[in-house]
Design brief:
InterPro entries: MUM1-like_PWWP, PWP3A_3B_4, PWP3A_3B_4_C. Belongs to the PWWP3A family. GO terms for molecular function: nucleosome binding. It comes from Molossus molossus. One of its GO terms (cellular component) is cytosol. There is one protein chain. By secondary structure, this protein is an alpha+beta fold. The protein has two domains: 117 residues, SH3 type barrels (Roll), CATH 2.30.30; 122 residues, no CATH class. Helices cover 50% and strands 8% of the residues. The protein has a five-stranded antiparallel sheet with strand order 4-3-2-1-5. Helix 8 packs across helix 9. The longest helix has 32 residues. It is elongated.
Length: 332
């Protein structure tokens, strides 16, 4: 006799009333923590999504950073009372969304898309980290770029980014003491100059085009394509190697043209996302091909260099470690 799960469930319900699955129950957090997504109303504007940067429990205040097109993830944000915050998934969420849509339909829609993409990537394991880390990483590039390319046509509320700087006590006339001048780290600039050779090889010389076309026409195997096809709708994205967004934008636009000329039929057959296909297949293949040509190494060595990513200087690592310590101290 086969087991009938439906009848089994009905019999259990007749015996006793069970609680619904926990996933169906709404449990709003009782407190606010660093990294949480919240709503905050600023002046005359509707409630708007924001990220908690720090929490001062004794003062019952928090520093929040509004989510918008040109948000600076390293910004300090503004200090507000905890009682003026609402959790992003609060019971009034839909009403807050409807209110924001009245004057900022496209902008709030973009914010929700960004938050949704972040949560989906957390759920499927393609990203692990805070929302601000996601926003600053290349993995959020497709969603961020969609609004940044249309900032003229998208209206955001004029929200405050940081608290006004307070004068330093003890300094004459309340003036701030001049900060110590820090010389720029030239490691990133040197990497950008080296990467410019890769960009010119891909875009100007079209050096990787025959390699890409061969992959799109199934004439050459590709580990990146195989991974993309076997990973479902969401794939594990790696860093894009190129750190400069202008360089990355040039290469992506070029790859879009290659895709439209060669790969559109292939993508139609397998019903895949065009942007993710470009970022997860064509982009790594193009950069690896360029590294192989510019550095005069074989494909395997170039691929290992791509996967390893840019080598950070000691100073860059020190700055990154200090940022982590600062964030940890803010949580305490």
């Amino acid at each position: 006799m086969e087991f009938d799960p439906i009848n089994s469930i009905l019999e259990e319900e007749e015996e006793e009333d069970e609680e619904p699955p926990r996933i169906l129950l709404y449990h709003e957090p009782h407190s606010f923590e660093v990294g949480m997504l919240v709503w905050h109303k600023y002046q005359k504007y509707p409630f708007w999504p924001a990220v908690v940067k720090s929490v001062k429990r004794k003062e019952k205040k928090a520093s929040v950073l509004f989510i918008e097109g040109h948000m600076d993830p390293k910004g300090r944000g503004i200090t507000v009372p905890l009682k003026r915050l609402k959790h992003f998934d609060c019971k009034e969420k839909q009403a807050l969304l409807n209110e924001a849509k009245e004057d900022f339909d496209q902008a709030i829609g973009w914010c929700v898309s960004l938050i949704t993409d972040y949560r989906v990537r957390l759920g499927c394991g393609s990203f692990s980290g805070s929302f601000l880390e996601y926003y600053a990483a290349n993995i959020s590039y497709p969603v961020r770029k969609s609004i940044q390319q249309d900032l003229l046509g998208t209206q955001f509320p004029q929200l405050c980014h940081e608290d006004p700087e307070m004068p330093v006590s003890g300094s004459p006339w309340g003036r701030r003491q001049p900060s110590r001048k820090v010389l720029p780290d030239r490691s990133r600039a040197a990497r950008d100059r080296a990467n410019q050779k890769l960009v010119e090889y891909i875009v100007k010389a079209r050096g990787a085009e025959s390699h890409l076309r061969a992959i799109l026409k199934n004439r050459k195997p590709s580990k990146w394509l195989k991974t993309f096809l076997n990973s479902g709708q969401y794939v594990t994205c790696v860093e894009t190697y190129l750190e400069d967004e202008e360089q990355l934008d040039l290469v992506v636009k070029y790859l879009q043209g290659v895709y439209q000329e060669t790969g559109s039929r292939m993508l139609t057959q397998i019903n895949c996302d065009r942007i993710r296909f470009i970022l997860d297949v064509l982009l790594p293949e193009a950069i690896i091909c360029a590294i192989s040509a510019v550095d005069q190494v074989d494909y395997k060595t170039a691929e290992e260099k791509y996967i390893k990513g840019p080598l950070l200087s000691y100073r860059e690592k020190e700055i990154f470690d200090n940022q982590l310590l600062e964030e940890r101290n803010q949580r305490c």
